[in-house]
């Protein structure tokens, strides 16, 4: 432990001296939102976790940079990486590529780790008392080795700012899997050796270059320009993720009409805003979620799509703005069981009302409420971060029943709250 602390302090001291001796304009700091799709190493299952994080980059020259990144990914539900705590990701490595005047293309290779505070350990979990083995679950902080490899697209709206998009493969080394066997010693045995698997990750964020730059008149707002001449229209693009809450099990057919799994869906979208004043704006946003998820009909399946239309109200300052948003709209699914016809039927000589269903698209009413942070890179360009609660009103769901007396099982209208996080940029005109 003492050696680890000394090594940590030595690294921090060396980094501080290096930064102090370097030119400040070589250093970038950034914030981002990310989405990590974790694939189970043993079963055909995946789980997407949204998160937020920060990044520090040191540019040796226009082609080579070293960077460190840390992301915080809250727990959505327990499938693997089970823990009472949340998931933390750290990656440290190099970025190599080509920087042009307004954009840059790079590749990245960054080793690192994933860690949870109370991961379940089975290796030393059997204690023999009076010759009888006892299973004692052990929870401890666990670290899992990772390699983040992929591509980076950077866009430079001004000399100080960087808008950045990353996509890549986060390779995870899953530790060996153990099983408990009470019939004979050794009671804990390895049933799977360490295994590497591939996991898709997408990240979007904004960075700021430190240091003193020559004045750029095209990006300077005078005191008169800042408030009186805010552009009236905005067109933007964004990356979004929605953690979709499951429907309840309070229904006549728990196996047919319910799902008990939270699932986080990543997506992309666009937005159009009209600024009526400095404080009030009307905007429309559309998102399409890329993953196709499958449960069991009549639960909504397929791809999700979303449209929200409403107001943004708040306060705009010289370089940033804080707003609240209230936007009605809809969230839809491409595969939903729809009852199209009811007709009388005899089942075991008992008259009942049966149904006919078709599978198709359905859009449910939604309401997006939350907060917005905007950063004005220049008079024409801005970065934006949204976080909020997307409330979805699911309509009545029905399915066929095997019962002779009740041929149609129904679940009534339900409202569900869903966390949604978005990050993107916009052009103002």
Highlighted features:
single chain; 429 residues; mainly beta; Porin; eight-stranded antiparallel β-barrel; eight-stranded antiparallel beta barrel; 3 helices; 7% helix; 64% strand; flat; disordered N terminus
Q: How would the blueprint of this fold be written?
A:
Layout: H1 2-21, E1 27-39, E2 46-59, E3 64-73, E4 87-99, E5 103-121, E6 126-129, E7 132-135, E8 138-155, E9 161-174, E10 177-180, E11 188-192, E12 195-197, E13 200-209, H2 223-228, E14 233-244, H3 254-257, E15 263-275, E16 280-289, E17 301-316, E18 320-347, E19 350-376, E20 381-394, E21 397-400, E22 408-411, E23 414-428
How would you summarize what this structure contains?
The chain has helices spanning 2-21, 223-228, 254-257, and strands spanning 27-39, 46-59, 64-73, 87-99, 103-121, 126-129, 132-135, 138-155, 161-174, 177-180, 188-192, 195-197, 200-209, 233-244, 263-275, 280-289, 301-316, 320-347, 350-376, 381-394, 397-400, 408-411, 414-428.
């Amino acid at each position: 432990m003492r050696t680890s602390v000394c090594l940590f302090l030595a690294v921090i001291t060396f980094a501080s001296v290096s930064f102090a001796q370097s030119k400040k304009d070589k250093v970038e700091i950034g914030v981002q939102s990310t989405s990590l799709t974790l694939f189970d190493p043993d079963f055909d299952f995946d789980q997407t976790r949204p998160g937020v994080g920060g990044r520090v980059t040191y540019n040796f020259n226009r082609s080579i940079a070293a960077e460190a990144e840390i992301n915080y990914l809250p727990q959505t539900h327990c499938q693997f990486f089970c823990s009472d705590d949340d998931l933390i990701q750290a990656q440290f490595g190099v970025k190599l590529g080509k920087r042009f005047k307004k954009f840059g293309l790079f590749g990245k290779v960054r080793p690192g780790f994933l860690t949870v505070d109370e991961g379940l350990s089975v290796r030393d979990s059997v204690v023999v008392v009076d010759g009888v083995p006892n299973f004692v679950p052990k929870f401890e902080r666990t670290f899992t080795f990772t390699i983040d490899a992929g591509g980076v697209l950077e866009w430079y709206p001004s000399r100080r700012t960087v808008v950045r998009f990353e996509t890549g493969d986060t390779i995870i080394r899953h530790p060996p899997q153990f099983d408990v066997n009470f019939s004979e010693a050794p009671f804990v045995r390895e049933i799977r050796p360490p295994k590497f698997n591939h996991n898709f990750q997408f990240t979007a964020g904004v960075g700021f270059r430190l240091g003193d730059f020559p004045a750029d008149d095209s990006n300077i707002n005078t005191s008169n320009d800042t408030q009186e001449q805010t552009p009236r229209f905005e067109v933007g693009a964004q990356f979004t993720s929605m953690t979709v809450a499951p429907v309840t099990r309070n229904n006549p057919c728990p196996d047919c009409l319910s799902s008990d799994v939270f699932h986080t869906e990543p997506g992309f979208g666009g937005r159009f805003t009209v600024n009526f004043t400095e404080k009030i704006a009307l905007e429309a946003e559309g998102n399409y979620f890329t993953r196709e998820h499958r449960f069991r009909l009549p639960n909504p399946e397929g791809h999700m799509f979303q449209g929200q239309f409403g107001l943004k109200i708040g306060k705009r300052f010289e370089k940033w703005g804080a707003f609240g948003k209230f936007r009605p709209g809809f969230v839809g699914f491409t595969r939903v069981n729809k009852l199209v016809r009811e007709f009388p039927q005899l089942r075991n000589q008992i008259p009942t009302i049966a149904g006919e269903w078709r599978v198709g698209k359905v859009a449910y009413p939604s309401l997006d409420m939350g907060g917005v942070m905007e950063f004005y890179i220049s008079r024409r360009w801005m970065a934006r971060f949204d976080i909020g609660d997307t409330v979805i009103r699911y309509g009545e769901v029905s399915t066929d029943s095997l019962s002779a007396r009740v041929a149609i099982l129904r679940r009534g209208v339900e409202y569900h709250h869903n966390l949604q996080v978005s990050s993107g940029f916009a052009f103002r005109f």
